[in-house]
Amino acid sequence: MKKSLLIVDEDMDAAHLLRQQLSSSQWLEVCGHAASVEEAWKMLQACKPAMVLLGGLAETERGVLCQQFRLAFPHLSFIAACVPQELMWEPFFRNLGIWVVTKPVQPSQIEALAMMPSAVSESGINRGPQYGEFHKSPMQSEVVPQQLQHTIAETQFYPARPVTAGLPSKRLITVYGPKGGVGKTFLSRELAIFFSMQKKEGRPLRVLAVDFNLDLGTFATTLNLPRTPNIYTWVQDMDDQLQAMAQRQGRDPQTMRNDEWQELAAVMPLTSHDISKYMVRHDETGLDVLTSPRDIRHSFEIKDYHLYLILETLKQSYYDVILIDTAPDTTDATIQALFFAEQVVMVGNPVVDSIENIQRLLKLLREAEYPEERIQVCMNRLQRKEMFTLEEIRAYFQLHPSKRIFSIPDDAEVKKSINSGNPVMLQPGRAAAKDAIETLGKALLPIEPGKAEPAVRPKTKERPSLFRWLWG
Ligand SMILES: Nc1ncnc2c1ncn2[C@@H]1O[C@H](COP(=O)(O)OP(=O)(O)O)[C@@H](O)[C@H]1O
Ligand SMILES: [Mg+2]
């Protein structure tokens, strides 16, 4: 049976053309075209399509529209047709379970998607593709008819990039908190160290920490590590590649606009083979760190498409766990880190301004239908007696009853451990802060019992990080 498709797009010509092209399709039938939200609602009622192609409507955001339609018609699946400049929205759409294709839309792409088995969640609601499913090859699907297979093989589901088969499952964890000084960098460091001390199938986990505080990052400092190479080293190499690509296409890199670079970046081949040259190694634990630039001015040259390419490449890399430390802002780097992540640690302190900002952020993410199960709230620097209890904070955040709030005690040793570059997790003996970080770490990355063995190498000599940073 043919699947019915509703086209929602202001671009009349594009919609008519696609409709014409699909008129002889064996798999799909266009049941209507709506050029406004109102029209789209009417057609949804009237023709009950199985799929909706969201081209573009100036009056609304596609993500919001998709969620509204889904509430009323839970079994709909959605495809967003994007121009290359909309590249940065791809992780956002992906999180909403929306397929993404490039404009101009190829009818074969839509047919191929119509043939995909729909992802039905436990609740029975069709959420479309979930995170990670974009990289499943459609060729694996048994329901795809032979004659379509070659088309699918050639189809570029923009900008989904193939993932090398056989890679171990990995976790991308973003540590975020919409206020400075709450302990994001401290927790990123401790979690990264904790994970690098765990083993998987007899070998230590391969862990990477990324400093996404592009301008004022200090992650390297908190581990006494040098700041070269860094993200900017990688960005320069990417720029060389992009410029060479532009020249091969007969274009003048000097006159190219940001959106043209974005377009080029979308088709740039990725390789994660030799990215270790951009990392600095923490010898004691084997943790790799991708540090932020040394010079603030270098951070100004890092563009959204660079960050996108970095995140996509890291996703294909050999690391088991990637931890991203972020800045307390809502810049591109932070938003991309949130939307690429499988888990987010939302860090705050039990003070009213920090709590207020977390609440605002949660509201924003809820409105964007960000999957809340990915967020772990962590209150850092808890003292014995606080003005607000965790229960009060939980009620204020309107968290799901099953959701716990993690807490890390305020500990005088933390300051010392940051100044000396010696993580709490590597200090001998037991400490409340250490136990609390371990609890959080285990919740983020459940490790089978018996598999957690410390894999720490002998200690090298300590040096106070501040001095090294100032004069080193
Ligand atoms: N659990 C804690 N106990 C005591 N001090 C802490 C704790 N967590 C963080 N701090 C202090 O707060 C400072 C800021 O932490 P940091 O991780 O740099 O915050 P952020 O990255 O959110 O800006 C640290 O230098 C440390 O002195
Ligand atoms: Mg920080």
From TrEMBL:
<keyword id="KW-0547">Nucleotide-binding</keyword>
<feature type="domain" description="AAA">
    <location>
        <begin position="171"/>
        <end position="368"/>
    </location>
</feature>
<dbReference type="InterPro" id="IPR027417">
    <property type="entry name" value="P-loop_NTPase"/>
</dbReference>
<dbReference type="Pfam" id="PF13614">
    <property type="entry name" value="AAA_31"/>
</dbReference>
<keyword id="KW-0067">ATP-binding</keyword>
<protein>
    <submittedName>
        <fullName>AAA family ATPase</fullName>
    </submittedName>
</protein>
<dbReference type="InterPro" id="IPR025669">
    <property type="entry name" value="AAA_dom"/>
</dbReference>
<dbReference type="InterPro" id="IPR011006">
    <property type="entry name" value="CheY-like_superfamily"/>
</dbReference>
<dbReference type="InterPro" id="IPR050625">
    <property type="entry name" value="ParA/MinD_ATPase"/>
</dbReference>
